[in-house]
Structures are given as C-alpha cells and as structure tokens.
Write a structure and sequence with these properties.
Layout: H1 2-10, E1 13-15, E2 19-24, E3 29-34, E4 39-44, H2 48-56, H3 64-75, E5 79-81, H4 86-98, E6 104-109, E7 112-113, E8 127-130, H5 133-146, E9 152-157, H6 166-180, E10 185-190, H7 198-206, E11 209-215, H8 220-226, H9 236-244, E12 251-258, H10 269-276, E13 283-289, H11 307-323, E14 346-349, E15 354-356, E16 370-371, H12 379-389, H13 397-400, H14 405-408, H15 413-417, H16 431-462
Parallel strand pairs: 6-9, 6-14, 9-10, 10-11, 11-12, 12-13
Antiparallel strand pairs: 1-5, 2-3, 3-4, 7-8, 14-15, 15-16
Helix pairs in contact: 5-6, 11-16
Length: 463
C-alpha cells in the first residue's frame, strides 16, 4: 500500500511551461528558472546529467540522491503537478489581486500638473494649478467614503513636478498620517530633482517619503538638450548637486530614459560624471524606453525603441551599470498584475479632484473616471471606468502562449487599451527577449558577492 501510494505520488509531475534554461559555460553551470514562482535553481556540472534526466522524464524512478534534486525542482516551481493548468492559475491570481478590496490603499496624488522643465519627449500638458485646501479636505472625505476599511495607505507623489506643490504635500501628509497613523503611511516621489534642496530633502524624509525617482538622460551635454528647465536653461549640474546633498534617509532611484538619440552616449559618459560627483554609493540606476503615450509626445515616436532592439540594449546597459557599481541585478519575479492602475484599490488624483486609473491620463479630463468635488459620475466616466475594469489579459491569445507571462501579465494595460485595434498581445516586456541575460547577470553578481563575503570573513579572522 505504501509502495502504491509512493508510485502514484511520483507519477503526477510535469515540467513547467514557464521554465527558462540558461547555460553559463564560464562556470560550468546550468540555471533553471521557474517563472511561475520566480525561483532560480543552480545546477552545477556534476549534477547536470541528473537534472537533464529528470526534465526529460519527471516521473521516473530515481536514486535517493536524484530524488533530492527532483524535490528541489518541485519546491522551486520547475516541476508542477500534472493536473495544474498554469495559465488558469495565473489568470485567476490576476483577477483576485485586481479585485481584492483589502485594507491597503494606493493613491497617486498630483499636487500640481505644472512643471518647470520642458523635456523634449514629455507626454503631458502643463497646467499651472495647485491643489487647493478644499480639494485636499474633500479627498480625505472621499477616502473615508470610498474605502472605509482601508487601514494603511501608500502615496506616490507625482506631477508635473510635485515639489512645485510642496505645501500641499506637507499638509496632506500630516492629515493622512493623522488618519492612518504614521506607521501605516508610506510614500514615494517622482521628481525632476531641480527643487530638491537639502532642507527640502530633509523635510521629505521627515514626511516619510523614503524614496524618490529622478531622471538623468545621459551625460550633461545630452541631458541638458533633452531635459532643459523652462526657458532653455541646463539642469544637469543643478540636479547632481541636489542629489549629492540629499538627505541620506531618502533612497534615490535614477531613471535614464533611452531612445535612438541618446542610446550610444550613456555608457561610459554618464557613469564617468556620476563617479566624478561621488554618487556611486548614493543611488541605483535603471533604464526605461521613451514611449509615446499621448499625442503630446507624438513627435518623439519615431525615435522610440521597442521589442528586441530595446531588450538587447537594456540588458547591455544594466550589465554596464552593474560593472560600474550603479546597479545590483535583481531576480525577475512572478507578478499578480502589472501595476496599480487596474486594481480596485488604486487611483490617481489630479489637482482639481478628478480621479483617473492611470497617471498617463492625468492631464486629459476626458479620461477621468470620477470627480470627488461633485461626488458624481457621468456616463462617459462610467464607460471609462468600465474599460479599465474589463481589462483581461486572458483574452490576449499571444500572451496566453508566452513563456514570460508570469513576469509581465501582459504588460502595461494603458498601452494595450490605447491601441486603435485590439491585438493578440499586450505590451510585451523586455523580459520576453532578454530574460536569460538578466538571469545570468543576476547569478554572476550573486556569486561575486559570495566571493567578496568569503574574503571579508578570512580578513576578519586574520585581523
């Protein structure tokens, strides 16, 4: 009886459809990445034959040693139960995550959508309005009415340039902390960095803004052409000086927007200037393609990078950033949904009290889904909200068959929903094309850290 049950237990496993295999000959290692759980397994050369045999026949009779390898593959999502429909699992998880009316609330708040920069590829209209105290107080009432069970809140301060509305940030933060408690409040800010003076950065840290995103689009010459202050003044040196003196409690994420115009100049020029400024230990760098989200930035569409060309370049840039000490590779995870925009607990609020699902729409009133000031919705608003609520990655046949579906869940819904004709695919992630390179980079970086730690332990022991 025990033997029969054992055979039955061993006969119901299959190789995950989301398995990615990466050979790294330089260290005689095979990497197995179980995408459904986002787990990475290292198979040294001595165990390669055993691993290959298990992947060829997951239910074969094995030695005790090889059974340990198979168990590891089960634990890490390399092997999954035969009866499991992985696609159904992912899509069900997606719907549960999006419709989870939990106690967590995520708001993007725009104190203003005015900006003191005139970036060449910006997708926004700049409107010189600051959120009034009336709108702020109504927003607090709306939160209480719309999400009465919310116990904790995360705010992303956005714009325009949010620091042009700094008094709004200061006042609203204190009121939100009074409502939810300081321990249940967290915040992040996206800023161009020009107004981030030492006293302001200290105040932001005091207001529980633990991280900021700032953009530099390459070395000073290139950046100043692409991201000038209104009136044409250069902004690179101003931003760098502010970052150098930023409160150390604030984590800095440096975004570099990339298109055909600056792709070849980022490495090594940008890293050289960051080195000279002494910022190596102060920030982390990541790269993002310029995307023509709206008609405002349509002129830049011809220089945008996408698909395989962007994916290959991004992998190269991230590796260079790692080698220069500006990026620590991370392991791609398995996500329930792409972003907060398609979640019932996520909203974007503009300075006039209009509510949106995505911050790309924040200057387009026709895309609003609510108006907290009138406490009413129009038929147009209801239609717009329904459009977001009906977004369903499972309807995209091309995504159904994609091996990196767990890593992107069809990508940015705004881009897909904005297409004039419904297609078979969503907004493909760069991971569709460069996942093996990112896995290899992550693995090698982790091995290097292990080597450094061993050296440190030896030095400590001998000191």
């Amino acid at each position: 009886m025990t033997k029969k049950n054992s055979v039955e237990k061993k006969s119901n496993w299959k190789v995950s459809r989301y398995l990615t295999k990466v050979d790294i000959p330089v260290v005689n290692t095979l990497l197995l990445y179980g995408g459904i759980d986002g787990r990475l397994v290292e198979i040294p050369q001595d165990f390669r034959a055993s691993a290959d045999g298990i992947l060829d026949n997951p239910n074969a009779m094995l030695t005790e040693k090889d059974e340990e390898i198979r168990q590891l593959m089960k634990d890490q999502g390399i092997l999954v139960p035969e009866e499991l429909s992985e696609k159904d699992f992912l899509f069900e998880r997606n719907q549960l995550a999006r419709n989870n009316t939990s106690t967590s609330l995520s708001l993007t708040i725009c104190p203003t959508i005015n900006c003191n920069f005139r970036c060449t590829y910006c997708y926004q209209h700049h409107i010189p309005t600051i959120m009034s105290e009336e709108v702020q107080d109504t927003l607090l009432e709306w939160i209480e009415k719309k999400h009465p069970s919310a116990k904790n809140i995360h705010i992303t301060w956005f714009g325009g340039e949010p620091l042009l509305g700094y008094p709004v940030i200061k006042r609203l933060t204190k009121k939100l902390q009074d409502k939810f408690g300081k321990d249940n409040y967290s915040a992040f800010m996206i800023t161009n960095g020009s107004l981030l003076k030492p006293d302001i950065s200290k105040s932001l840290a005091d207001l529980s803004i633990s991280g900021i995103q700032v953009t530099l689009d390459g070395s000073s010459h290139i950046h100043n052409e692409r991201r000038p202050i209104n009136g044409g003044k250069p902004s690179f040196d101003l931003i760098v000086e502010n970052l150098k003196s930023c409160d150390p409690r604030v984590r800095i994420s440096l975004r570099v927007n990339v298109d055909e115009l600056n792709a070849k100049t980022i490495n090594p020029n940008l890293f050289d200037e960051l080195d000279q400024a002494g910022l190596k230990s102060r920030l982390s760098v990541y790269f993002a393609p310029v995307v023509a989200y709206t008609d405002v930035c349509a002129d830049s569409a011809g220089t945008c990078l996408s698909g395989k060309s962007w994916s290959s370049l991004e992998a190269q840039l991230l590796f260079k950033a790692y080698l220069r000490g500006y990026s620590q590779p991370s392991l791609p995870g398995s996500i329930s949904s792409f972003c907060i925009a398609d979640n019932v607990n996520g909203w974007v609020i503009n300075p006039n009290g209009l509510v949106f699902k995505c911050w790309n729409d924040v200057t387009h009133e026709e895309k609003a889904v609510m108006d907290i000031m009138s406490d009413t919705t129009s038929l147009r608003m209801d239609v717009e909200l329904s459009r977001w609520e009906s977004w369903n990655p499972s309807k995209l046949s091309g995504c159904n068959d994609c091996s990196t579906l767990p890593q992107c869940m069809s990508g940015c819904p705004h881009i897909t929903l904005s297409k004039p004709v419904e297609g078979e695919r969503g907004d493909c992630s760069e991971l569709k094309y460069n996942l093996p390179e990112k896995l290899a980079t992550y693995y090698l970086a982790e091995k290097q850290k292990e080597g450094f730690e061993k050296v440190r332990l030896i030095l400590d022991k001998n000191s």
